[in-house]
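Spend some time on the protein that follows and explain the fold to me:
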Amino acid sequence: MSEFQTEPAVSLLGTTDSNRRVQEALADLFAGDGTIYIVSGYFTYQGYLAIRDEVVSFLERSRENELVAIVGPASDQFSARIAHDLWALDDHDQVRLYKQPRGLHAKLYVRDGPNPLCILGSANITQVAFEYNIELGLEMTRESCDHPDLRPFLEWVDEIVAMSEPLRRRDLFVPVQIGCSFVNWSHKARLLPTRNVMLRVVPVVIGIVVLATLFRLV
């Protein structure tokens, strides 16, 4: 007989029309102890503010708690204000930030430790995802990090951390972040027909540059 006899429930996550919202699940993620891994293709400051209190409580509750975040460093993907705030909170070397410039689109939020929890689905950490978009996600709890349902996600996040580079302050300079946006969109453009590039990609890139310059992606 398997040592994993009783399977805890798997919950579906959505936005305001769901019984269980993504933001609520993320709050529960930070309510437990261990190492929390965040992989979010888009991570905006307003999205961060929605869960900041939970992040602060998690870091202050135990010096053993750690937060590992893998982000896309481009100006349209990640707000520099998040990094600066997390670094300011990090009095005991509990926060590790990594950059993954290769078109990061994954969304995975997982906590190891005594009561592991895994969240995956369509939602980035953004206010739009929390309050407007139709999102679909899955929240899964298991009694051990060695459970076969959970182990693949922890192994995957270990692999992407190994493939990523530490996020540095120089990566957050506006020209550097805008440059990353250009690189991302140029790679996408190579995979699209020329007409699609002209009609879709070029206006988007121009819009990114304008918005990033004016608003610094608040």
In short: The chain has a mean pLDDT of 86. DSSP finds seven helices and eight strands in the chain. The chain has two domains: 10-169, 172-215.
